[in-house]
């Protein structure tokens, strides 16, 4: 049976089984309960069972939703994360809770050895962290959190406190991680990009000798179905990369894995625009940051755009050339206002076309090509739909005037968040829950989409500004090249 016939059979067998949504009020209350249950007092864990520490980009998405419940908690969420920043500017992808047993999650603090192996890079002495990073959503989150209650933010000095840390974070990415020499940031481990098990990594990972299976114990399999999780072979390669990076004292530019990813860079560009607005709020000019964001957008198009495919691809810095795998990462640049109109139109065609099927065969955006040989509707980032990527694309579609498609995607996100008890991710065809439930960013982003007038972001008063909130929600047009 060919791939198309397999997909037809899958749809015929399972159908689309979306449960009727409950009332918005009920969804709001239950989302708030998830975030309350996962709150530790200073930050929010993604999941009490599967992810019992603080994760970097999770906290950014969580803060975006928390601002509607408690702007103070949202500010605290980001401040707690940034307090664990390394002296070289990196924001670690995990900040470990010392009260959680070491065997509750792997890799644990004793694997990363941040206080010793990370000493030369300036790892904090008062917190145990990992040594890798995650996508830079943080400045965007900080700006949206400020706008939720500007009076509280100003009284606490929130933006003044986080701006130097966010600026250092961006400097690290733009200078230390430009491993390809073309102006874009590279990730040095699949975990850094956030879409950990994507088929985009298969080719560059094939050069990595996996760590022996006996050298590590996978805590994730105690909480998730093996068929939903990365294989032991893939996990062994993740462990090898992380071990080599740690043993190299977290120095950048030496490893076998270096990839320029469109989603990671698009989020950096969006956060550059947000940093410009933060600087302006604090009495400085943001012109230079807006200009940098526009230059990065041009570099993104030059290095990662594939016109024949109608989407962005990852670039393998070590192996050379684009990686011809279609993933949701290659659609995420829709978030940016500076894309040329022809690229926006091509991305919209691609997200609606047979490879992603939005509005036709799928209701949420699958993480990987429906027609790809590696597609699996349940396995981690190899096909399932995730709520954070659909939230980002909802913003991007609305930003570029695709109001009906954005409205439909918004309703689907809320419907599936409601019907799956805030699942970590879902089968893109049936909406069946995968991974864990009570997942924090699912609840947080559902809260954001529930707002009658969500956003309250940056105004687009003139050329170079980027509306990360109201503009993206209302679909008012701006210059797009």
Automatic annotation (TrEMBL):
TM stretches of this protein: none
Superkingdom, taxonomy of origin: Bacteria
GO BP terms in the entry: oligosaccharide metabolic process; protein N-linked glycosylation
Keyword Hydrolase (UniProt): yes
SUPFAM superfamilies named among the record's database cross-references: Six-hairpin glycosidases (SSF48208)
InterPro entries: 6-hairpin_glycosidase_sf (IPR008928), 6hp_glycosidase-like_sf (IPR012341), Glycoside_hydrolase_63 (IPR004888), MGH1-like_GH (IPR054491)
The Mannosylglycerate hydrolase MGH1-like glycoside hydrolase domain, residue ranges: 51-442
GO molecular function list: Glc3Man9GlcNAc2 oligosaccharide glucosidase activity
Keywords, sorted A to Z: Glycosidase, Hydrolase
Family: Belongs to the glycosyl hydrolase 63 family.
Name the record gives this protein: Mannosylglycerate hydrolase MGH1-like glycoside hydrolase domain-containing protein
Organism: Streptomyces brasiliensis
């Amino acid at each position: 049976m060919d791939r198309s016939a397999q997909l037809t059979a899958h749809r015929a067998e399972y159908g689309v089984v979306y449960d009727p949504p409950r009332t918005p009020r009920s969804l709001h209350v239950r989302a708030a309960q998830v975030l309350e249950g996962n709150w530790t007092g200073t930050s929010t864990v993604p999941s009490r069972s599967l992810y019992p520490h603080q994760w970097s980009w999770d906290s950014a998405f969580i803060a975006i939703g928390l601002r509607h419940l408690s702007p103070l908690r949202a500010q605290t969420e980001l401040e707690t994360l940034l307090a664990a920043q390394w002296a070289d500017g990196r924001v670690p992808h995990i900040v470990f809770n010392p009260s959680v047993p070491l065997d509750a999650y792997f890799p644990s603090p004793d694997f990363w050895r941040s206080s010793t192996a990370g000493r030369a890079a300036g790892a904090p002495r008062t917190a145990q962290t990992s040594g890798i990073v995650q996508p830079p959503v943080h400045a965007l989150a900080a700006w949206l959190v400020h706008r939720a209650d500007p009076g509280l933010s100003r009284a606490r000095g929130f933006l003044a406190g986080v701006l130097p840390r966010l600026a250092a974070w961006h400097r690290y990415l733009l200078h230390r991680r430009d491993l390809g020499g073309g102006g874009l940031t590279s990730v040095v481990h699949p975990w850094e990009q956030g879409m950990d098990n994507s088929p985009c990594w298969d080719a560059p990972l094939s050069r990595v000798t996996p760590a022996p299976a006996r050298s590590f114990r996978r805590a994730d399999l105690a909480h998730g179905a093996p068929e939903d999780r990365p294989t032991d072979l893939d996990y062994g390669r993740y462990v090898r990369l992380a071990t080599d990076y740690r043993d190299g004292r977290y120095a950048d530019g030496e490893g076998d894995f270096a990839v320029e990813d469109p989603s990671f860079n698009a989020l950096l560009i969006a956060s550059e625009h947000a940093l410009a607005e933060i600087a302006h709020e604090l009495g400085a000019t943001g012109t230079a940051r807006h200009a940098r964001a526009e230059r990065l957008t041009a570099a993104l198009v030059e290095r990662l755009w594939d016109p024949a495919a109608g989407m962005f691809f990852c670039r393998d810095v070590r192996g050379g050339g684009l990686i011809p795998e279609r993933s949701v990462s290659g659609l995420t640049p829709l978030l940016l206002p500076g894309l040329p109109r022809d690229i926006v139109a091509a991305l919209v065609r691609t997200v609606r076309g047979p490879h992603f099927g939005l509005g036709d065969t799928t209701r949420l955006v699958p993480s990987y090509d429906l027609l790809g040989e590696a597609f699996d509707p349940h396995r981690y980032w190899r096909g399932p739909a995730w709520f954070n990527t659909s939230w980002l694309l909802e913003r991007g579609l609305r930003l570029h005037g695709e109001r009906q498609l954005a409205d439909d995607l918004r309703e689907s996100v809320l419907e599936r968040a409601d019907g799956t008890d805030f699942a970590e991710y879902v089968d893109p065809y049936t909406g069946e829950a995968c991974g864990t439930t009570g997942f924090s960013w699912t609840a947080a982003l559902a809260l954001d989409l529930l707002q009658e007038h969500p956003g309250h972001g940056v105004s687009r008063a003139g050329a170079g500004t980027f509306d990360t909130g109201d503009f993206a929600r209302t679909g008012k047009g701006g210059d797009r090249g």
